[in-house]
Amino acid sequence: MPSLISPAERDYILKGIDCNIRADGRQRPDYREVILETGVISQTSGSARIRLAGGTDVLVSVKADIGPVLVDPETGEGADKGQIICNVECAPSASQQFEGRGADELNNELTQMMTRFLSHNTTSLSTSSTSSTPASNSNGAGGINLIPKTEVQDLGDGNFDFEVLDDAEDTEVVEGREDMPICVTLNKIGARHIVDASPLEELCTEAKLVVAVNRSGELCGLQKGQDGGIEPSLLLEMIQFGKTLGQTLIKQLDAKIKAEADADMIKRQNGQPVVKLGFFAQ
Amino acid sequence: MSRAELLSPEGLRIDGRRPAELRKITSTTCVLSQADGSAYLEHGNTKVLAAVYGPREARHRALVLHDRAILNVELNVAPFSTGERRRRSKNDKRLLEMASFVKQTFEPVVIATLYPRSQIDIYLQVIQHDGGTLQACINATTMALIDAGIAMTDYVCACTAGWVEREAAIDLNYIEESSDTSEVTIAMLPKSSKITLTQMESRLHVDKLEEVFRLAGEGCKQMYEVMDKTIRDRAEDLARKMAV
User: Which regions are flagged for Low complexity bias (chain A) (predicted)?
Assistant: First the structure.
C-alpha cells in the first residue's frame, strides 16, 4: 500500500476526477466489482467475506451469545433488548503499516464508528435475553470502505429461561435486520467527490465523509475524516448523493444475498452438499 | 473430571475418525495480492491464513544482522475463531509463545544467509480454531514461504499426536485437546526426517512417548504429501499460464 504520491500523479488523478474519469476507467460514482459470499465461517452465527476487485478484503462474523444487558436502574428499560458489541481489526497481513501497534488507531476509529452506527439505529433488533455480538475483522488492503455486512445475521433462537435450542436447522433470522444501516464513504478530491477510492486516490483526498443510511433512506450516521474541510453546500450535496447511493447499494446487496441463498436452497433440495469457497475463491 | 467418551468401543474417535487418521486438509497459496507470499490452510475446522512479506529492509535498525536475515512472526487470533467470543490482546502470552515457536521452527530451515541485512515478516491469522492451531500455523507458514520464493532447505511439516484414553491418536481436535489429553506437536523436515520443533502439553508416560512420536512423524509425512501436491499443482498452473 503506497504512502507517498508524487505531484505529477496527484495532478493526474485530480484532473481526471474533474473530467469524470478515473485511473481504472471508472466514473466518479462507480464502485469496483463487489464479490460477496456469506456463511464462510461455520462456527459463527453469520459470516460474510466481501472483496472489492483486487483491493479491500473484509471478513465479518457475527456471533450471538447469552450475556448481560444494560438495564436502566430507574425505568427498567432495556431488559428485553440485546446489545451489539463491535470490533474491527486490521490484520498486518493486509498491509505493512498495520504491523505491531500500527493499526491501533485505525482499529479504534472504525470500531467506535461501527458501534455508533449500529447500536443506536437498531432499537428493534432484539430477541429476548439474547444479546447479539458481532465481531468483524477487517483486512483493509485498499481503500477503507466499510460495508457493515449486517444483512446476514442469522441468530439462534433463545427464549426466556435461557434454553438455547441446539439445532442448526431451528434458527430464525434476527428481527430488525432490515433497518440496519449501510455505509458509503465519499472522498472529496478537488471540488468533486468520488466513491470507493483506490489507495492512490485516498492519498489525494482532502476530506472524507462516511454516510450511513438505512433502507428507508433515513440518515443513521455521519462522520467526517481527514484534515481538509467541506463547504456546507457541497456537504449537503454529498449527503444526498451518499443517501441515494446507499439505498441502491442495499438493493444490490440484497439481490446478491438472495441469489446466493436461493442457489444454496436448490442444492439442499437436490441433496447436493453446499460448498463455500471462502479463501479458495480466486 | 467428567467427560464425554473420547474413544468409542469400536475404537472410533469423537468425530468418527480412526486413531491414525488425519482430518481433511485443504490448502491453497497466493490468496492475498499485497503479500509476497501467502497461503490458506484448513485442517478440518481449523482455518489459518499466512502472509509473508520480504525479504525487505528491516524496520528497526538495531535488529539488523550483517550476515543474514531476521525472521519476524506475528500471530493474530480472530475474536470469533473460538466457540465463545473472546478478544485476545496482541500481547497475550499464549500468542507470543506460539509466534516464538513458529519463529524457532523456521530459523534453522530458512537459508537466512542469502538475505543479509534484511527482514522476513510472517503474519499469521487464525480464522477458526478447532484444535491443532500450532501445526496449522507451521504448515501454512511453510506454504507461504515457498509461495514467496524464499530459500529453504526443506519443507517443514507439523503434526500433533496424543494419547487419547487408551490409544495414541494424531491430529487432535478441540474436544480431544481440551479434555486433559497429553498432546505433542512436532515439526519435521520430511526429507531428512529431522525434527525442528517438539512441544508437549500435559503429562505422558514415557513408555507411551515413542508410539506418540512415531504416529506424529507419520502424520508429518502425510502432511508433506498434501502440501507438496498443492505447491506443485500451483507451480504447474503458473507454468502453463506463462507458456501461453
Answer: 121-139
